[in-house]
Request: fold
Amino acid sequence: MRSSPGGSNDGGMPSGWLNDVVSVRVVIAEDEAIIRLDLLETLQEEGYTVIGETGRGDQALELVRSLKPDLAILDVKMPGMDGLEVAKVIGDERICGVLVLTAFSQREIIEQARDAGALAYLVKPYQKSDLIPAIEVAIGRFRELQALSGHVDALGEQLEARKLIDRAKGRLIDEFAMKEQDAFSFIQRTAMKERSKMREVAERIISGDLRPS
Ligand SMILES: [Mg+2]
Reply:
């Protein structure tokens, strides 16, 4: 297992710093040394930064967890841990995009795995010209998934806030005989005055910490 800093590090501003900013950071795991080396060279030629490499599946997972690359390229059959298992964990933990390198006979398994997560695959022996598009697919899928889950989180938060504000309004209406519109503007005004969120004001009304004077 080997991990290396992306770019030169000879004090001061690393000379490759601009490259590092735009370069996609990759961890590769392939137990066949020749294929791994070939992959490494191709990626470097194409401007990718290989920040870690290994011939073992379990070490691949370690590297990905600690280095948090943009992409992991994983062979399927590797000592330590199967590449698909590694891919599944990476997917569950939403760490990065995954490109799986597979032998033709494993294609069906891969397609099942692909349907379950953010994964692209490439059948070995692959053409150099197929590698880059496959990498872009893997990274693209991961970004889509990230954007989607961020959107879902935001929607969930909005909904939660609305529920809390409704409950707080209900309390103001029931206990302080406020009209609905007044209850809402009380929450709104208080939030503005205190520079806090309406949901925080709502929480304090519900807990009884805040009451209209
Ligand atoms: Mg292998």
User: Anything to note?
Assistant: The longest strand covers residues 97-103. The chain is about 60% helix and 15% strand. The radius of gyration is 25 Å. Residues 61 and 86 are 6 Å apart (CA to CA).
